[in-house]
Amino acid sequence: MREQWGDLGVVGRIYIAEEGINGQLVVPEPAVNAFERSFPRLLRDAKLFYGQLIEEKLQSDDKQKVAEPFHKLDVRIREMILHDGFLGGPLDLKDSGSSLPPDQWHEKLKNRNDTQDPDTLVLDVRNFYEHEIGRFDGATRIMVDTFRDTFDALDEILDKHEKEHDGRKPKEVMISCMAGS
Fold first, then answer.
1. Looking at the predicted structure, is the pLDDT value of residue 18 above 90?
2. Based on the structure, what is the number of domains in the chain?
3. Which of 4, 12, 54, 139 counts the most CB atoms within 10 A of its CB?
4. Of 88, 83, 69, nearest to 11 (Cα)?
5. For the Rhodanese domain, which residue ranges apply (predicted)?
């Protein structure tokens, strides 16, 4: 990776662990096709998000150039990508619920809010920035600084929900964990 992508001018950060690969990369626009072809087995099933285009040219009214987020390509092998605070390896996500496409998520959220369904708890676990630019009506935000703090915060939220609902646990939990959900 380091050699092949470095030759393409790719910069960024890649973490490799047993649970998978996490990366944030800047790929020069002329190298995007070569980048996609570089590791077909690795990238075939990857969910690539082509985010913001960083313009190299300055607009006539711009006073300063956009800061580049990375200066080199850093590839690291880690014990874990997300440090969850659990001992004994990564979480088992085999029975973790199902994903909904955005239109179904919004419809389900609307129905929950319209009926004030007390048996459905909506959690917004997005980061501070994503939460500031948009919120989900009726959602409880998990106010943590790091992923490892999430589980203690979840326990507190579930305890509060039970106290507010005569000791009943939620029958369903809807979780939004990324922008655009």
1. no
2. 2
3. 139
4. 69
5. 116-177
Intra-chain end-to-end CA distance of the chain, in Å: 31
More confident residue, 95 or 73: 73
CA dist., res. 96 & res. 109, Å (int): 19
Q: Which of 97, 114, 118 is nearest to 174 (CA)?
A: 97
Amino acid identity at 144: V
Do 67 and 9 fall within a single domain? yes
117 and 55 in a common domain: no
Q: What is the DSSP string of 54-101?
A: --SSPPTT-SSPPPPS-SSEEEEE-S-SS--S-SSSS---TTS-----
| Residues of the domain holding 68 | 2-77
pTM, 2 dp: 0.56
Retrieve residue 120's tokens. Answer: 């459905």
